[in-house]
Amino acid sequence: MQTSFSDIGQRLAGTSGIQELMDDLGQALNNQPDMRMLGGGQPAAIPAVQALWRERMQSLVNDQTTLDKTLLNYDPPGGNPLFRQNFAAFLKRECQWDVQTENIGILPSSQTAFFLLFNLLAGQTGNTKKRILFPLMPEYIGYASQGLCAGMLSGNPAKIEQRSAHEFKYHVDFDRLRITPDIAALSVSCPTNPTGNVLTQEEFHRLRDLARQHHIPLIIDNAYGHPFPGVIHTSFQPSWEPGMIFSISLSKLGLPGTRTSIVVADPAIIRALSNMNASTALSNGNFGQAIINPLLADDTLLKLSRDIILPFYKQRSDFATQVLHECLQDKIEWSLHSREGAFFLWLWFPKLKITSAELYQRLKARNVLVIPGHYFFYGLDEPWDHSQQCIRLTFSQPEAILREALEIIADELIALH
Amino acid sequence: MQTSFSDIGQRLAGTSGIQELMDDLGQALNNQPDMRMLGGGQPAAIPAVQALWRERMQSLVNDQTTLDKTLLNYDPPGGNPLFRQNFAAFLKRECQWDVQTENIGILPSSQTAFFLLFNLLAGQTGNTKKRILFPLMPEYIGYASQGLCAGMLSGNPAKIEQRSAHEFKYHVDFDRLRITPDIAALSVSCPTNPTGNVLTQEEFHRLRDLARQHHIPLIIDNAYGHPFPGVIHTSFQPSWEPGMIFSISLSKLGLPGTRTSIVVADPAIIRALSNMNASTALSNGNFGQAIINPLLADDTLLKLSRDIILPFYKQRSDFATQVLHECLQDKIEWSLHSREGAFFLWLWFPKLKITSAELYQRLKARNVLVIPGHYFFYGLDEPWDHSQQCIRLTFSQPEAILREALEIIADELIALH
């Protein structure tokens, strides 16, 4: 049977860039077991973190009443009431945010939170068509296919600061940022996936003030950042204020299999998201909340982030950077984005003569998988050469694999230049 | 901040009937702890079933490799490859369905499966607007708010067969069923939530033939039925064939907290749903698949359904029916839908002089919560008096509470007539 798909179906189910890429990655994984995987965004297996989750799971299994509820109950679509209350208390105590239970909503993953948020706030709205504006493009690849209406996601190209021969940093280009009446919200991931960029405190405040002035929400995706897993190497600490929407995730704590995110927002937004979650998913999975709930009573999660997770990724990032410098030296023109957070290296080759897609294919042929950078540039008004000159690498892999992969990348790029 | 919501946002997040009702139920639960809850669709706490899930959880915690993967891995958006393979083998062996791994897709709940399916197949499609047709209305309340386009869900009113003084059954009214070119699919829950109706084998075959003739899918929601939890009291056993879309759920096995559904469909549909799941949720929660996977090797799930779950609900249903007959006798005109499956009694009062919403309020004032029937009638071309004359009761509650509640319902209705 040849079934036709709706316009929205084709948007969400079609072969968007990310889906083609995921298929390609999946094929490579299955058919080339010796592939060096520097592609995915999966958190690393950190022994001390895994030990904590195993211990929590054993406690949950020992506590029959809680286990039974975790398996058998449909909680309300906005999350378990007690968990929401405890999470609000946790944020108030540990982050000094002025939040109540009504400011907290649970959703089945950050990915879902953003899908619902973007389509709640933007798209056809009466006679106007509203847009989400990403003020700092490149941005997370997973947002690109989430709009139910064409053209509802717009990006503002970042301004590039060259800090030294082999280091650059993106900044919000406020001179080009135009908040027209059809902009429904500003949205930034911080630390940014893919670049590892972290907003400066000043940028955050300017974005906050702009959003406030235009009566639109400022959305911050804290998946890699505050308050956990806290993989931020600067002093930046965003503080939630009314009118803002923050998304926090359990995934990068090492629990992506639980599909749990926590949204902090005005009560009207939380109610709307809960209602949307009722329509689209009925309720959340209970395991993430059950695992985390007892840890909200103290600062375990913050200590875990600060003492275990942050140093782990810092060490891996330092190692990868050192190998890169050893291999590339000054042989070609290359630049690494300032390593301010998250799990990635974002590499820029300003003199690259092929597209990033071709570079991806060449590296794949040599058993190294990276993510070509062009997928992270979308919703731009005009083409940008820079978008074809970058790749994203994850450094969660063991050091030996990382070294091999980086040597091959360097070798290929030197040959190409 | 007064944030405006998009048209789609208002559709999904607005105060639809079901969301108002859920709020009302939630309030009642919190403020009236002595409320007799005959409202929800939660599975009952069946000791032998709970024992199995506790045992599986302990085994999972003992198996560190699998536990670590369950917590730490992002599986592909269509589900764990091994689970899909094992589930296909299970269906082939136990149900004799001709399915391969590519026919199996995992999604985070049936609710999500239907949200994605309806919007994949129907809504704006080029220049035409396609619709989902429910051939047997009343239907599941949770579908009603899932359409991203206005008017994309249509219902065909059931034909009523009065079988005896106090028993009736719905049939598909094939004389009124008009499959125009804008119909994208036929969709039936079987057993039907709320009515407990089960299609006859003949109805199923006629629907199959009609769908085939019009080159559209026949969608069957098996949440309460085949192959598990198997709460079907007739001999009906649907067999999946190419072109059909079947949805199977872990929820009514007692695992709603895992949010796991299995869709069986043509590979093109499975691929589209997986891609949609990537866009909207990235991947599934892993616990449901991890708990069930080892049980697919034999007929444990079918035996559990047949020997434990089915008799449990049958006994409760018989008890509730007996109490109803004792209380109502022939004092008023009342009729119960033939009890063919699922967890509900569907009661019809043909001479009711108030709306079902008013009846709901009166019963709530007497600490009995039911679901007023009118929510289950939607997408109809013209008003139907019958839609105001029904209520849905769940019989999962302990017998003492069930008896009290039914006595109050009878008392109120006798007073009203």
UniProtKB/TrEMBL annotation, chains A, B:
Transmembrane segments: none annotated. One of its GO terms (cellular component) is cytosol. It is an enzyme of class 2 (transferase). Its EC number is 2.6.1.66. Its cofactor is pyridoxal 5'-phosphate. GO terms for molecular function: pyridoxal phosphate binding; valine-pyruvate transaminase activity. GO terms for biological process: alpha-amino acid metabolic process. InterPro entries: Aminotransferase_I/II_large (IPR004839), Class-I_PLP-dep_aminotransf (IPR050859), PyrdxlP-dep_Trfase (IPR015424), PyrdxlP-dep_Trfase_major (IPR015421). Keywords: Aminotransferase, Pyridoxal phosphate, Pyruvate, Transferase. Pfam families: Aminotran_1_2. PANTHER family: AMINOTRANSFERASE, VALINE--PYRUVATE AMINOTRANSFERASE. This is Valine--pyruvate transaminase.
